[in-house]
């Protein structure tokens, strides 16, 4: 059982690194793809087949922008 856990952990870590690189190349939100690929490593295959996004890379709103949107 310990081997399964270690293999899953290494796979999740490798998928996270690969997702970060692929998201950067494909102009996608890096933290989004890294986070979800850590939770569900096969998702990196989905990212691999997505087309490259045109325009600026999406960015997360800052906490100040989040607070201003709530008010």
How would you describe what is shown here?
With 71 residues, the protein is mainly alpha-helical. The chain contains 4 helices and no strands. The chain has one domain (2-52, 59-70).
CA radius of gyration is 15 Å
Amount of helix: 55-70%
Number of domains: 1
Classification by helices and strands = mainly alpha
Overall pLDDT level: 91
Give the overall form.
flat
Number of helices: 4
Poorly predicted sequence stretches spanning 5 or more consecutive residues: none
User: How is the main sheet built?
Assistant: none
How much of the sequence is in beta strands? under 5%
Give me the strand/helix succession.
Answer: HHHH
Number of strands: 0
Q: Which SSEs are present, and which pair or pack?
A:
Layout: H1 2-25, H2 30-39, H3 43-49, H4 63-70
In short:
This protein has helices spanning 2-25, 30-39, 43-49, 63-70. With 71 residues, the protein is mainly alpha-helical.
Please name the defining characteristics of this protein.
71 residues; mainly alpha; 4 helices; flat
């Amino acid at each position: 059982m310990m081997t399964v856990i270690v293999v899953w952990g290494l796979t999740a870590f490798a998928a996270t690194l690969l997702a970060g690189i692929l998201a950067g190349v494909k102009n996608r939100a890096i933290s989004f793809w890294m986070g979800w690929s850590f939770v569900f490593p096969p998702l990196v295959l989905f990212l691999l087949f997505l087309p490259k996004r045109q325009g600026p890379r999406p960015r997360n709103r800052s906490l100040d922008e989040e607070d201003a949107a709530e008010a």
